[in-house]
Design brief:
Blueprint (H helix, E strand, L loop, with lengths): L1 H25 L3 E3 L5 E3 L17 H14 L2 H24 L3 H28 L4 H25 L5 H25 L2
């Protein structure tokens, strides 16, 4: 398994370098609008600690996240999903700070979906008895303990979104609360 992780890391690194080179080459390309004017292509390249969803390399990061999730052992999936959800909460806040409300909302909805997936995986793990009861219990508590951070974020930032976005947020929050109750039911059976 260690050898596979090493090969995966090398391939992901090579892909990241290739995408970086392509994006650097095309970042400042201009597109003709047909009326003698030109417009810079959409996509930002900037140097920062994190790669936000408006960055050209963000799709590479998402691809690596998906691969890591697919290759993760069952006992690691919930924690990975929570980590991805928490990261997207952070990104959503940063995008709001940068005045990118629509992209922030999309990122927040993806964060909520990762939390929901972590809840669903935890429920499924209990129902299918994939792991020991003690490990299932630990994972369930970890997922349930992560939810207040999500709820706090939504309460603090909900008014920064449009009316239609708030309606969708309410729906996603309601779905998350139902999943959390379902997990508590299987946890305390």
């Amino acid at each position: 398994m260690q050898k596979f992780n090493y090969i995966f890391f090398i391939l992901a690194s090579l892909l990241a370098v290739a995408v970086l080179l392509i994006s650097l080459q095309s970042a400042n390309s201009q597109r003709s609008l047909g009326n003698g004017q030109s417009k810079l292509l959409v996509g930002k390249i900037y140097v920062a600690r994190e790669i936000l969803p408006d960055h050209t390399l963000y799709p590479v990061l998402m691809m690596i996240d998906r691969l890591r999730l697919e290759l993760a052992a069952p006992e690691k999936r919930s924690s990975l999903m929570l980590a991805y959800g928490k990261r997207r909460l952070f990104y959503s806040a940063r995008l709001l700070e940068n005045g990118q409300r629509e992209l922030s909302f999309i990122t927040l909805s993806k964060a909520i979906k990762y939390y929901q997936q972590a809840l669903t995986v935890s429920i499924g793990s209990f129902n299918e008895r994939l792991l020991s009861y003690r490990l299932n219990q630990e994972l369930a508590f970890m997922v349930l303990e992560a939810l207040p951070e999500l709820q706090t974020f939504i309460v603090e930032h909900k008014n920064e979104y449009s009316d239609s976005e708030r309606v969708l947020l309410d729906l996603l929050v309601e779905q998350t609360e139902i999943l959390a109750l379902d997990l508590q039911i299987v946890l305390y059976k």
